[in-house]
Design brief:
Elements: E1 4-11, E2 14-18, E3 23-26, E4 34-41, E5 46-53, E6 57-67, E7 70-76, E8 81-89, E9 92-101, E10 104-110, E11 118-127, E12 129-135, E13 141-158, E14 164-182, E15 187-195, E16 198-204, E17 207-208, E18 211-217, E19 222-231, E20 234-240, E21 248-257, E22 260-266, E23 271-277, E24 283-289, E25 294-300, E26 306-312, E27 317-323, E28 329-335, E29 342-348, E30 354-359, E31 365-371, E32 377-382
Parallel strand pairs: 1-5, 4-6, 5-7, 6-8, 7-9, 8-10, 9-11, 10-12, 11-13, 12-13, 13-14, 14-15, 14-16, 15-18, 16-19, 17-19, 18-20, 19-21, 20-22, 21-23, 22-24, 23-25, 24-26, 25-27, 26-28, 27-29, 28-30, 29-31, 30-32
Antiparallel strand pairs: 1-2, 3-4
């Protein structure tokens, strides 16, 4: 069993190296004022650490063909770039950047058998900065924390099964998250607070037991989630708290079965769109509180699908469309003095379908259309 430990500390232009074995430390000529490179090849239990203070620094760590390698980078200052690459299994990467702006972190844990790796990146009080984490193989974990800043971007790409991506962006504006996962048993958890934020999550191919949970606390923010070729998957989007108006949530599940989508939105002028296609035992639940909200659910094919929209307030619009389904259920409830609310349910084809609309308020409009099916039931209640 071979081991190595390297510590590099840069302050202004100074370089200190200690306990170096199986590691090459080379000052790098680049666009940054200070730069450090650590390379560790074909070892196990290796450790590399870089600490930098000041502006315009660059830190790079390459651990190739290693097992249980540890890479740690800490920077404090503006316009810093950190690049870490690990090839192997059971690796751990930790990056901390604080009190700065214009920073970038790129972490790559790659190639076959790059499993059971962990990447944790924190940018604290950092604006105009970006984090990118790329992980191959399975059982990997990516954790990104970006706090107290604006115009920050986090990107996670995981290309196998049993992956976990956690992104926490708090107390900022213009925050953006992109997560791409390819495989089964994947989990994405995202928390954003602030305004003008966005989340985009994609889980594709062999997506059994995939989970997406997104919480947004703020206004004028967007969430887009896509799952395909999935079974027993779950999506929960929550856009909440006072002042959480002007938000948008869009969820698409294609070629899925036994899967659930829930969208909860507070305040005004929010939009929720759910599309589920070619699957059975699908469930879509949308809950919107306050006025001038729009909810749309579209389910195509399959059997035993369920769509439920609840709206509390006036001038809300709810639409449910179910096509070629058997034993499907559509329910719209508009309550709380739902003035001028509009509810529309359309069920086309299939058989044994149920549509129910309940409205409480003045000037409400309800429409149920059932075409080309048999043994269908429709009910409208207005009071």
């Amino acid at each position: 069993m071979k081991s190595s430990k390297t510590i590099v500390s840069l302050a202004v232009a100074a370089l200190f190296v200690a306990n170096s074995a199986l590691a090459e430390v080379v000052p790098v000529s680049s666009s940054t004022d200070n730069a450090a490179l650590i390379m560790q090849i074909a070892g196990s239990d290796s450790t590399a650490e870089i600490n930098q203070t000041g502006a315009d620094n660059g830190a790079s760590i390459l651990q190739d063909n290693t097992v249980s390698a540890v890479a740690s980078v800490t920077t404090e200052g503006t316009m810093s770039t950190v690049i870490v690459q690990q090839q192997g299994s059971n690796g751990a990467v930790s990056v901390l950047q604080s009190e700065s702006s214009g920073n970038e972190v790129i972490v790559t844990q790659y190639e076959d058998y790059s499993d059971n790796n962990t990447a944790a990146v924190t940018q604290d009080q950092v604006s105009n900065s970006a984090v990118s984490v790329i992980q191959d193989d399975f059982d990997n974990m990516a954790i990104v924390n970006q706090t107290v800043g604006s115009n920050m971007t986090a990107s996670v790409n995981q290309s196998d099964q049993s992956e976990l991506a956690v992104v926490d962006q708090t107390s900022g504006a213009d925050l953006h998250v992109t997560v791409d996962q390819d495989g089964a048993n994947d989990i994405t958890e995202i928390l954003q607070t602030g305004s003008n934020n966005s989340v985009e999550v994609s889980q594709i191919l062999d997506g059994v037991n995939n989970i997406v949970i997104v919480d947004q606390d703020g206004s004028n923010s967007d969430v887009s989630v896509s799952q395909s070729a999935s079974l027993d998957s779950f999506v929960m989007v929550t856009q909440y708290e006072a002042g959480s108006d002007g938000n948008s949530a869009s969820v698409t599940q294609d070629l899925v079965s036994s899967s659930t989508v829930t969208v909860t939105q507070d305040d005004l002028y929010n939009t929720a769109t759910v599309n589920q296609s070619v699957g059975s035992w699908l469930e879509a639940i949308v809950s919107q509180s306050d006025e001038s909200n729009i909810a749309s659910v579209d389910q195509m094919g399959g059997s035993d699908n369920y769509a439920d929209v609840f709206q509390d307030g006036g001038s809300n619009v709810a639409t449910i469309a179910q096509t070629d389904g058997v034993m499907t259920t559509a329910m719209i409830s508009q309550e709380g003095d739902a003035l001028f609310a509009v509810a529309t349910v359309t069920q086309t084809g299939g058989a044994d379908n149920l549509a129910t609309v309940m409205q409480q308020g003045t000037g409400a409009v309800a429409t149920i259309t059932q075409v080309g099916g048999t043994f269908n039931t429709a009910s409208i209640s207005q009071h």
